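Collaborator request, handled under Task 6.
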Amino acid sequence: MKLHTLHRTRYRYEAPVRESFNEARLRPATADGQECRHFELRVTPSARSSHYLDFYQNCVHLFEIAAPHSELLVEATALVFTRDTPALPADATPAPLASVGDCLLQDRCYDFLPDSTYVEVTPETSALAAEAAAGATDVWQAAQAIMRHIHGEFQYRPASTTVHTHMREVLKARHGVCQDFAHVMIGYCRALKIPARYVSGYLYNGPRDELKGAQASHAWMEVFVNGAGWCGLDPTNAQLAAHRHVKVAVGRDYADVSPLKGTYRGTDRHRLSVEVLVSETEELPQPMSVA
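Structure tokens returned to the collaborator:
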């Protein structure tokens, strides 16, 4: 699919602020069957930006605004090509659950097994995870069983949590949004020693408006399967991550992939608005922009 993404963030401050230093993780990735053909970042007031790859290979843009300003507008647009590639190759043989501990020997898995900012493995989590994955014999079966369990047992309720909600709160409330479902699933998988990481991005809903979490920043997760690598699962919609999912960044949980964060001097009273639009397009590929 050829997808056009727009992510617009606007801060309005009650009094002018200054010395604003920011980092943005908004550029879609080029990896795993996805290609970002064009990207543009616009900041108002005007600011020069630089970019680098962080520890998890996410593209991070840095920009600063020293002068006083009452509003900050950050607009990211991209043209992304996605492919409906199988999450698990046909010739892959998922590791049995009994040998899942071998993943500790792989550097790329180590960070995605311990607790993190919004994910915690407790005896309760371990018991719930074992129940959700009962009967599964390999990593991929277990992960899909956990996905279906979370989709069935937790209610999707927009605006019921915040970006700082911990998975333990979601386990008590039994409701949340896509970020919360991803955190709970990551916690369950880690409780079974399955490496699991958080994915931020977007979801194209298509003309039928049948998926939850579309037309907003979306979140899902990936598990590591020996012989196949990282495989995406979307517990909010109980489906594999595929050509409708646009991956932007990965990390241990939301704390590693926040789309926009920073510091500034001035009032803490502000209004925040975020708009996301994902649409299918027939645009021809444009020259790659690194802005």
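The cover message to the collaborator said: "Confidence is low (pLDDT under 50) at residues 285-291. The chain has two domains: 2-82+258-280, 97-256. Please let us know whether this matches your experimental observations."
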